[in-house]
Design brief:
CATH class of the largest domain in chain B: Mainly Alpha
Strand content of chain A: 25-35%
Largest sheet of chain B: none
Number of strands of chain A: 20
Structural class of chain A: alpha+beta
Strand order of the largest sheet of chain A: 6-7-8-3-9-10
Low-confidence stretches of chain B: 294-298
CATH topology of the largest domain in chain A: Rossmann fold
Strand content of chain B: under 5%
Radius of gyration of chain A: 25 Å
Mean pLDDT of chain B: 87
Oligomer: heterodimer
Helix content of chain B: over 70%
CATH architecture of the largest domain in chain B: Orthogonal Bundle
Radius of gyration of chain B: 28 Å
CATH topology of the largest domain in chain B: MetI-like fold
Structural class of chain B: mainly alpha
Helix content of chain A: 25-40%
Order of helices and strands of chain A: EEEHEEEHHHEHEHEEHHEEEHEEEEEEEH
CATH architecture of the largest domain in chain A: 3-Layer(aba) Sandwich
CATH superfamily of the largest domain in chain B: MetI-like
Number of helices of chain A: 10
Distance between the termini of chain A: 11 Å
Chain lengths: 377, 298
């Protein structure tokens, strides 16, 4: 069932196009994550769904109803703000129960519901405190409680974890997921943190400059980014990108630029041959750090690089390599010993390499599928 | 790095440390004494005029010119106060002043906060221009508008009336400016949260904004009240009957053309200052809060 639907939604601030003809369908009980760099329009979309921001053109439907002209309170949505936006002069219980009180519910019924929500969020001991007396994590839970108590059809969350410290963020992330499961709610979640997006979203929507770049399950988007932007935005350390020319060479394919001549494996050639379009010409080769491997002894390396510096992060070790004029990142096992300046042979996971055309589109991405996803409202 | 235990340090080093400590303690004490002396002096200068008036108010006019002056009248003379309260319409003037200053303060707080909220948070056409225009009116001196205002109020037949005293005082933009600055500093997400919770625009103003700008309200309230309490020129111009006079004008009327009972005037001054002083003492913590607002991160 469709819960929220955006049709050709545009937001224009004078000369700036903040949201550019966005169409998007959010299903019932879905956890949808809007992901993108700051200023990409993701928060604007959230605020337009909430009704806090008028839309320049297009339509927004919630539960099948056109809400373009409805006030925020009539849309049956609740929002959790980045800075929580708790009312500083009200106690926790008043903060949570404020919407019910405004709706004219009896005091007894409000306090019953507040107690119930407080129990679910472990806020019972804090009900008579002011927001200023709470820690960041507690404030965050109060903000959630304020949203939950209204029993909305959609939860809108605007970077709700970004003000928490790292450890608390991880903990709250899983608590949010549990909460989502228990409430069976529809959630639209805005973040610029790809880890949050990957771990929480049923589907993620990657945005840039007001335009939806790609929509899909997190792993699919990671494995098959439709363009250079998505490829570069997802993944840490980020994908290695090399510009060059792709040509036919004897029986196979050759990728070359001023510092690298790479004879592409047969396996990769088969993928190229299956394409509808002729891939020859200016291209960008994309290699994720984990798709690069050290050549085992006795195996012929695809190419060679020189160890430039090492970044151990505990669970992995990132190796920065120099290949010709370019630098490239490799993710290896943490306890591998490598020396700075050492020459090492590298192998490629050919089945997972990406190739982007001159316009930045991934040649292997099923563009029709991606487009269909965007347009299916 | 391991720090050696004080006991293990050689005696010479210990002595040196002790001496340095003593020196620094002495310096600190000296600085304290000096700063207290300076502050006491400043206090004396500031308080002297008040003390002088207070002293005058308890003296008979004949005792005013004695030399050397008697700073603390003994026995104190209460006649000035009884004359003022029971023979002159001083209480009536006080009531007038209270009505005018109180109404102006309440109405101004309402108008200024509403306008401040609109200018700070709402979007409407020509907002910036309108605000600049309002600010520009601050540059027109009171003296320049005195006569036009008088003519308008006279045409409206509001001379010698409370309305005539109250209405012109409401048109002052400084409060709007102050409230706008204060309200602008509140996070917009707070209003958005209230909007999501179901607040109307007025409910946001009433239930969210007003409680949060309480310190600013108190400051603006006291400023306005004080300005009205001590206002002189406008009440002098627009009232000419004894019943409609306010305290300041009434006080001035105690001065005769040839003879002035300074003891009586001093007693009047003391009585005028009293409520304002009490008000200030009562609310001073808000003053400090308002002047510190924004200085430290919440």
């Amino acid at each position: 069932m469709t819960q929220v639907e955006l049709v050709e939604v545009v937001k224009r601030y004078k000369e700036v196009l903040a949201v550019d003809h966005v169409s998007l369908t959010i299903h019932d009980q879905e956890f949808l994550v809007l992901l993108g760099p700051s200023g990409c329009g993701k928060s604007t979309i959230l605020r337009m769904i909430a009704g806090l921001e008028p839309i320049s053109s297009g339509e927004i439907y919630i539960e099948g109803q056109l809400v373009n002209y409805k006030a925020p309170k009539e849309r049956n949505v609740a929002m959790v703000f980045q800075n929580y936006a708790l009312y500083p002069h009200m106690m926790v219980q008043e903060n949570i129960g404020f919407s019910l009180k405004l709706a004219g519910q009896a005091r007894a019924s409000v306090s019953d519901k507040v107690a119930e929500v407080a129990r679910a969020l472990q806020l019972e001991a804090l009900l008579r405190r002011l927001p200023g007396q709470l820690s960041g994590g507690q404030r965050q839970r109060v903000a959630l409680g304020r949203a939950i108590i209204r029993n909305p059809s959609v939860f809108l969350m605007d970077e709700p974890l970004s003000n928490l410290d790292a450890a608390l963020r991880v903990q709250t992330r899983s608590e949010l997921l549990k909460l989502h499961e228990r409430l069976q709610a529809t959630v639209v979640y805005v973040t610029h943190d790809q880890v949050e997006a990957m771990t929480m979203g049923h589907r993620i929507v990657v945005m840039n400059r007001g335009i939806i770049q790609q929509v899909g399950p997190p792993q699919d988007v990671y494995d098959m980014p439709v363009n250079l932007f998505v490829a570069g935005f997802l993944g840490s350390p980020s994908i290695n990108l090399f510009k060059g020319r792709l040509e036919r060479h004897d029986q196979g394919w050759l990728f070359s630029n001023s510092w690298l001549r790479l004879l592409l494996a047969e396996e990769f050639g088969a993928r190229l041959a299956a394409l509808d379009q002729d891939p020859r010409g200016e291209v960008t080769l994309g290699i994720r750090p984990e798709d690069l491997g050290l050549a085992a002894s006795g195996v012929e390396a695809d190419f060679y690089g020189e160890v430039h510096f090492l970044e151990p992060v505990g669970s992995d070790k990132y190796v920065s390599l120099r290949v010709g004029e370019e630098e490239l990142m490799l993710r290896t096992a943490p306890r591998l010993t490598l020396q700075k300046g050492q020459q090492i042979g590298l192998t490629l996971a050919w089945s997972r390499l990406h190739l982007f055309d001159a316009a930045g589109r991934n040649l292997f991405a099923d563009s029709r599928a991606a487009v269909a996803e965007v347009a299916s409202r | 790095m391991a720090v050696p235990h004080p006991q293990v340090r050689p005696a010479s080093v210990r002595l040196e440390i002790e001496q340095a400590e003593r020196r620094s303690r002495r310096r600190r004490a000296l600085r304290l004494v000096l700063s207290y002396a300076l502050l006491l002096l400043a206090c004396a200068v500031a308080i002297f005029p008040f003390f002088y008036i207070l002293s005058l108010s308890f003296k008979q006019s004949t005792a005013l010119v004695t030399y050397p002056p008697q700073w603390i009248p003994n026995p104190p003379y209460y006649g000035n106060y009884t004359t003022l309260l029971f023979e002159k319409p001083f209480l009536r003037w006080g009531l007038n002043t209270l009505i005018v200053a109180g109404s102006v303060t309440l109405i101004k707080l309402l108008i200024d906060t509403m306008a401040g909220y609109a200018f700070a948070k709402l979007e409407f056409p020509f907002k910036e221009q309108l605000f600049l225009f309002i600010l520009a009116t601050m540059m027109i001196p009171f003296a320049a508008t005195l006569i036009p205002t008088f003519l308008i109020v006279r045409e409206l037949k509001l001379q010698n009336s409370y309305l005539g005293l109250i209405l012109p005082a409401l048109a002052s933009p400084i409060g709007i400016f102050m409230m706008r600055q204060f309200i602008e500093s509140l996070p917009t997400d707070l209003e958005n949260a209230a909007r999501m919770d179901g607040c109307s625009e007025f409910a946001i103003y009433w239930r969210i904004i007003l409680p949060l700008i309480q310190p600013a309200l108190v400051v603006l309230g006291i400023f306005t009240f004080m300005t009205q309490w001590t206002a002189f020129v406008w009440p002098l111009v627009i009232t000419n009957t004894d019943e409609m006079r306010v305290l300041t004008v009434g006080l001035a009327s105690l001065k005769g053309q040839w003879v002035t009972d300074w003891g009586l005037v001093a007693a009047g001054s003391v009585l005028i200052m009293l409520p304002i002083t009490i008000l200030f003492i009562f609310f001073q913590r808000y003053f400090i809060a308002a002047s510190l607002a924004g200085a430290i991160k919440e």
